[in-house]
Amino acid sequence: MFARFIAVAAVVLAMSAPALAADQGNLQVFRDVSRQVLRYPHFTVFDNVQAEVEQGVVTLTGKVTMPYKSTDIAKQVTKLKGVTQVVNRIEVLPVSQFDDELRMGIARAIYGNSNFWSYGSMVNPPIHIIVDHGHVTLEGVVNSNVDRVIARSLASGFPAFSVTNNLKTDAEMKAELEKI
Asked: Residue 59's beta-bridge partner residues?
């Protein structure tokens, strides 16, 4: 269960080796940032935030559905111990009824599928559906390659301009975490 939490947090806040280096201070700040974002009450499966930490400087990137989310997340991260500066590069997704319908339809299809019921019951469901001008990107962690393929297949059943599948398996995330 603990490994699953780390994997979910790692994907939601896409860790990269240069961001964490071998510096334990950066690693602790990253973990705190991860926890802060995941605890943000308005963070949904339609948002995705990545963080890089270097010498106390946190760079936030990703996409969120509302402008206040970007601002709130950056403010909360600023308050964390060890954070000296926050560079907020989180993009706000455009307001679009078409995008909203895609988000909701794909979320219902994925989390309504019996293969993903256990994912949907999590406090922070691990599959994030980012829709930007009709282009869909799936981000997050799944248990297996079969789940990754099924999620992409379900998302592809909608009239999106494109579907990009960035889902990773638990095993892939574990391997990435071990490299750090």
From this structure: 52, 87
Q: Tell me: the pLDDT tens digits for 123-161? A: 889 999 999 999 999 999 999 999 999 999 999 999 999
Smallest CA-to-CA distance from 102 within 135, 140, 75, 76 is with 135
Q: Decide if 168 contacts 11 (C-beta within 8 A).
A: yes
What is the crossing angle of helices 2-12 and 24-39, to 10°? 90
**Out of 1-5, 81-85, 112-116, least confident range:** 1-5
- Contact criterion met (CB below 8 Å) for 13 and 51: yes
| Cα–Cα distance for residue pair 90/87, rounded to 1 Å | 9
33: closest CA among 90, 116, 108, 112? 90
- C-beta neighbour count of 170 within 10 angstroms: 18
Q: ∠167-55-20 over CA atoms, to 5°?
A: 30
Would the pTM of this model clear 0.90, i.e. be above it? no
Residues 6 or more apart whose Cβ sits within 8 Å of residue 156: 163
Provide the 8-state DSSP code for 95: P
Amino acid at 99: D
* 8-state DSSP, 41: T
